[in-house]
C-alpha cells in the first residue's frame, strides 16, 4: 500500500525526533563549543591523569578524515628539558614577529602571552602524514591539503573534549615547522600541524583572550554566511543583506551626551580654557563618535592604500605612465614609499588594496587582492564603470574597513594610488559640490600649462557628457570615479558605521568623502581631515564638508602621507582628554 503524504511526513518527523539528542545533551554540545577557549593563563600544576588524556586523544582520533586516511599522530610531551628547548624556539619566533610590528601593535603584543609550554603539565603535538593511505586515498587526489584539514579536525575534537574534562588547551604556532619537527625526531614525511599545551586551569574566560585584550574583535556570524553565491550575505530565514544599505542604516549622529561630557571635561582640565584649540574639537568629536568620554585611544591605526588605474589617463592628463600605479604598489609593499616612512614614524600599519590596478600584482603579505577590473573606462567616452562595479567598489571598501577594525585597529587612515586620479577627483568634486572645473582642477603631480588646460577640458567634457546627479552618488561614482574612489567611499562609510575614526588624506579621499556623505550624511561624524592638499579641489571639498584640516604643509603626494602625519595629533587629542588631570584632582587653583 502506498503511504499517504500526510503519513509519510508524520513518519519523517518521528525519525527526526528519534535522531535528535534530548534537549539537555544538545545544549551540552553547543555549550562546549561556546565555552571552548584557547587558554594561556591560569594553568594549575596538577598532572593530567592518564585515563583523562587517553579519553581526549581517543576523541581526537574519532575525527573525520579524507578517505578515512586518519593522517594524524599524537606525540605526548612531558619531558621538561625537551619542552624548555621547544619554548626557546617559540621565544625566538615571538621576538622576530614583535620586531616586524608597528609600534602600537608591538606595545599591545608585549602584554600578550602566546604560549604556555612550560606552565602546563603536558604538551601534545599533532602531526600529519600526507602520504598515508597511498595514492588512491579517496578525496585527496586534487586537494592534498585535505590531509591537513583532517588533522585540524582531530585538534578540534581534542579541544572540545578537553573543555568538557575541564582542561585548558593553548595552541602555539610560533615555530619554524622543520625546526620543531627535528626536535621531535619526526620522520621527514610527517609535518607538524599543531602544538597544544594542555592542563587544568583556574577558570575559562568567557571571551577569546585576544578579544578581551582588544587585539582583535569577533566578526558577527551574518558577515560570514552567504546565500547561494559569495556576496549575498544573510542568515538562513532572513533576507540577504545588502552591505551598503546595512552600513547606511547603521550610521547614526554623534552622541550628544558624550560630546557634552567631553566639553565639560576640557574646561576642567589643568590648562586654560580652549588652550588646546582645534585639538579640543577633535577630542570632542572623537567622544561623540565613540559615544563615551574619554573616547578610546585611536590606536592601533592602519593606513589603507586603495590602488586603481584610470581610463581617462588616455586623454593625456598626466606625464606619468600608467604602469607607475603598479610599480608604486610594489614600492608600498616593499616598504619603500613615503607613506611607509611616515607610517613607521607614527607607528601605523600599511595595507594596500588592489581594487583596479591595470597590471598584475604579485600576491605578497600586505596586499589585499580585490581587483574589480583592470582600470576604469575613459569618462570622456562613456561611464568610467558600471553601476554594479561602483557598488562592488563601495562594498569592497566597507569590507576592508570592517576587517581592519575586526583585526583590532581603532583608527583608519585613507591612502590612495592611481595615476590620473586627480582628474577623476576633480570631476567628482564638481559633480558633488557644483564647483567650476577651473576651480576644482589642479596640477596633480605637476603638469605644464598645456596639460593643465587639457585636464580642465577633460573634466568639462566629462561633466557635459554625464550630466551627473549629486543625489545619485553611486551614479556619480560610476560616471567618473576610480575604483579607489568608490572603495574609499565605502571605507569611510564602514568606519562610520563601526564608529571608528577615519583620517582623510587629500583630494582623492576628499572626493570619496563627498560620495560617502551624499550616501549617509552622518558619516561626516567619523571623518577627520588629516591635511589640506595643494590641489585646489581639496580646499573646495573641505569647505563643502565643513572639515578643518589638521596639517597644512603644501603636500600633494597622496598615498595617505598627509593623513598619517595627522595621526599623532588625533591620538594626542584623545590622550589629553583621557590623561590630563582636572584642577580638582591635581589640586591646582583655577583662574579667578
Ligand atoms: C591554527 C591556530 C593557531 C594558533 N596559534 C596561536 C599561538 O601561537 N599563540 C596563541 O596565543 N594563540 C594561538 N591560537 C589561539 C587563537 O588566538 C584563539 O583561538 C583565538 O583568539 C580565538 O580564541 P578562543 O580559541 O578562545 O575562542 C591559535 C589558534 C589556531 C586555531
Structural overview:
This protein has 592 residues and is of the alpha/beta class. Helix content is 48%, strand content 11%. The protein has helices spanning 5-19, 23-35, 50-61, 80-100, 103-110, 146-164, 177-183, 209-212, 221-224, 243-250, 256-268, 278-290, 323-334, 338-346, 387-406, 421-433, 437-440, 449-466, 473-480, 483-498, 507-519, 536-545, 561-579, 583-586; strands at residues 72-77, 122-129, 167-172, 190-200, 301-308, 349-356, 367-369, 411-417, 502-504, 527-529. The strands form 2 sheets. Strands 7-6-5-8-9-10 form a 6-stranded parallel β-sheet, with helices on both faces. Strands 1-2-4-3 form a 4-stranded antiparallel β-sheet, with helices on both faces. Helix 21 links the parallel strand 9 and strand 10. The structure holds flavin mononucleotide. Flavin mononucleotide is lined by residues 37-38, 40, 114-115, 171-174, 208, 210.
Radius of gyration: 28 Å
Q: Taking strands numbered 1, 2, ... along the chain, how are they ordered across the largest sheet?
A: 7-6-5-8-9-10
> Per the principal axes of the C-alpha atoms, what is the gross shape?
globular
Query: What is the CA-CA span between the terminal residues?
Result: 101 Å
Average pLDDT metric: 95
Oligomer: single chain
Low-confidence stretches: none
Query: How many strands?
Result: 10
Largest sheet: 6 strands, parallel
The secondary-structure class comes to: alpha/beta
* Count of alpha and pi helical runs: 24
Give the bound compounds: flavin mononucleotide
Helix content: 40-55%
Task: Please report which band the strand proportion falls in: under 5%, 5-15%, 15-25%, 25-35%, 35-45% or over 45%.
Answer: 5-15%
Amino acid at each position: 500500500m502506498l503511504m499517504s503524504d500526510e503519513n509519510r511526513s508524520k513518519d519523517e518527523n518521528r525519525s527526526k525526533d528519534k535522531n535528535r539528542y534530548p534537549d539537555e545533551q544538545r545544549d551540552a554540545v553547543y555549550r562546549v563549543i561556546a565555552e571552548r577557549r584557547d587558554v594561556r593563563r591560569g594553568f594549575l600544576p596538577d598532572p593530567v591523569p592518564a585515563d583523562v588524556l587517553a579519553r581526549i586523544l581517543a576523541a581526537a582520533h574519532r575525527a573525520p578524515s579524507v578517505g578515512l586516511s586518519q593522517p594524524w599522530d599524537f606525540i605526548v610531551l612531558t619531558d621538561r628539558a625537551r619542552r624548555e628547548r621547544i619554548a626557546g624556539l617559540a621565544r625566538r619566533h615571538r621576538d622576530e614577529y614583535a620586531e616586524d610590528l608597528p609600534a602600537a601593535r608591538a606595545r599591545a603584543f608585549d602584554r600578550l602571552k602566546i604560549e604556555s609550554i612550560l606552565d602546563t603539565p603536558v604538551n601534545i603535538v599533532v602531526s600529519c602524514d600526507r602520504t598515508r593511505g597511498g595514492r588512491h586515498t579517496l578525496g585527496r587526489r586534487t586537494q592534498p591539503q585535505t590531509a591537513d584539514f583532517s588533522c585540524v579536525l582531530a585538534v578540534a575534537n581534542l579541544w572540545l573534549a578537553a573543555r568538557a574534562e575541564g582542561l585548558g588547551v593553548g595552541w602555539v604556532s610560533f615555530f619554524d615547522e622543520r625546526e620543531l619537527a627535528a626536535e621531535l625526531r619526526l620522520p621527514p614525511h610527517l609535518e607538524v600541524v599543531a602544538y597544544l599545551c594542555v592542563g587544568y586551569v583556574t577558570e575559562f574566560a568567557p571571551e577569546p583572550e585576544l578579544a578581551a585584550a582588544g587585539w582583535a574583535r569577533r566578526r558577527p556570524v551574518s558577515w560570514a554566511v552567504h546565500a547561494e553565491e559569495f556576496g549575498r550575505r544573510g542568515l538562513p530565514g532572513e533576507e540577504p543583506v545588502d552591505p551598503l544599505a546595512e552600513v547606511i542604516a547603521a550610521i547614526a549622529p554623534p552622541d550628544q551626551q558624550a560630546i557634552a561630557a567631553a566639553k565639560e571635561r576640557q574646561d576642567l582640565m589643568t590648562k586654560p580654557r580652549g588652550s588646546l584649540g582645534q585639538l579640543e574639537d577633535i577630542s570632542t568629536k572623537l567622544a561623540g563618535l565613540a559615544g563615551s568620554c574619554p573616547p578610546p585611544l585611536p590606536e592601533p591605526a592602519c593606513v589603507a592604500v586603495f590602488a586603481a588605474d584610470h581610463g581617462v589617463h588616455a586623454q593625456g592628463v598626466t606625464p606619468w605612465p600608467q604602469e607607475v600605479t603598479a610599480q608604486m604598489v610594489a614600492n608600498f609593499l616593499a616598504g619603500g614609499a613615503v607613506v611607509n616612512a611616515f607610517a613607521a614614524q607614527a607607528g601605523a600599519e600599511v595595507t594596500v588594496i588592489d581594487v583596479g590596478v591595470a597590471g598584475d600584482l604579485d600576491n605578497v603579505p600586505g596586499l589585499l587582492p580585490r581587483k574589480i577590473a583592470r582600470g576604469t573606462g575613459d569618462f570622456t567616452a562613456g561611464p568610467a564603470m558600471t553601476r554594479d562595479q561602483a557598488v562592488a567598489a563601495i562594498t569592497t571598501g566597507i569590507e576592508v574597513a570592517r576587517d581592519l577594525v575586526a583585526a583590532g585597529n581603532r583608527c583608519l587612515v585613507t591612502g590612495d594610488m592611481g595615476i590620473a586620479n586627480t582628474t577623476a577627483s576633480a570631476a567628482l568634486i564638481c559633480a558633488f559640490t557644483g564647483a567650476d572645473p577651473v576651480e576644482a582642477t589642479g596640477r596633480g603631480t605637476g603638469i605644464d600649462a598645456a596639460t593643465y588646460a587639457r585636464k580642465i577640458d577633460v573634466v568639462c567634457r566629462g561633466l557635459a557628457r554625464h550630466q551627473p546627479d549629486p543625489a545619485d552618488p553611486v551614479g556619480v561614482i560610476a560616471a567618473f570615479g576610480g575604483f579607489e574612489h568608490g572603495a574609499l567611499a565605502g571605507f569611510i562609510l564602514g568606519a562610520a558605521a563601526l564608529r571608528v575614526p577615519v583620517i582623510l588624506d587629500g583630494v582623492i579621499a576628499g572626493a570619496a568623502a563627498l560620495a560617502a556623505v551624499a550616501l549617509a550624511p552622518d558619516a561626516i561624524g567619523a571623518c577627520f581631515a588629516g591635511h589640506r592638499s595643494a590641489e585646489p579641489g581639496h580646499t573646495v571639498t573641505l569647505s563643502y564638508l565643513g572639515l578643518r584640516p589638521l596639517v597644512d604643509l603644501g603636500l600633494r603626494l597622496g598615498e595617505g602621507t598627509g593623513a598619517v602625519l595627522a595621526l599623532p595629533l588625533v591620538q594626542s587629542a584623545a590622550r589629553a582628554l583621557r590623561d590630563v588631570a582636572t584642577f580638582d584632582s591635581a589640586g591646582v587653583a583655577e583662574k579667578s
